[in-house]
Design goal:
The chain is mainly β and 186 residues long. The chain has a domain of 122 residues. The chain contains one helix and 14 strands; from the N terminus they run ββββββαββββββββ. The strands form four sheets. The chain has a four-stranded antiparallel beta sheet, with no helix packed on it. A four-stranded antiparallel beta sheet has the order 7-8-9-10, with no helix packed on it. Strand 11 and strand 12 form a beta hairpin.
């Protein structure tokens, strides 16, 4: 007997396979759309670092321009999206590591993109200052709440791995940090 709740299968099923690249994030939207992130850490990077799964194929999302890797315009483009999550207001949150290396990136390189799924457009880009996104950090995880997104990173300092968490306001109001960054040894 198939386990179901209101027409939704509770059993995992294969909806796509990617033999050449590994998606790190999967975010199913309420309307059935599925979004995937492919960090650009492979020798041959995936054509898009953020994609929508359409008929089993990863299609560049929200468009090819923002997915095109261009270091001269990194603040306005995706470098390497790792963490993704659905946020409030039918929005997709995409956490860009700011680096194509698992060793971490430049100070201030990571950013959070807020994408409206009705318009398929970026509505906010939230950068992380040098005090939060230190050199060598790798932002990978995102946990949204109703108004904020908690983003976390790992970085190496003095031969010890540190973790940093910061909250960012993702509402339509002015950008502000809702808490100071914290670091602790692991």
């Amino acid at each position: 007997m198939e386990a179901q709740t209101r027409g939704v299968s509770l059993r995992p099923e294969v909806v796509a396979q990617f033999p050449d690249h590994w998606p790190s994030g999967i975010a199913p939207a309420r309307d059935g759309r599925i979004f995937l992130s492919f960090p650009r850490v492979d020798r041959t990077p995936a054509p898009a670092t953020l994609a929508e799964l359409i008929d089993g194929v990863a299609v560049t999302f929200p468009d090819e321009l923002v997915n095109a890797l261009d270091s001269s315009d990194a603040p306005h483009r995706f470098v390497s999206v790792h963490g993704i999550a659905l946020g409030p207001g039918n929005r997709l949150l995409a956490l860009d590591t700011g680096t194509t290396s698992l060793e971490g990136g430049a100070a201030g390189g990571a950013k959070l993109f807020v994408i409206d799924l009705e318009d398929n457009a970026i509505v906010r880009s939230i950068g992380f200052g040098h005090d939060v996104c230190v050199a060598g950090s790798y932002f990978a995880c995102i946990s949204p709440t109703e108004r904020t997104a908690r983003c976390s990173a790992s970085f190496r300092a003095s031969h010890a791995t540190k973790r940093c968490c910061t909250d960012r306001d993702i509402s339509s109001g002015p950008m502000r940090s809702s808490s100071a960054p914290t670091a602790s040894s692991t």
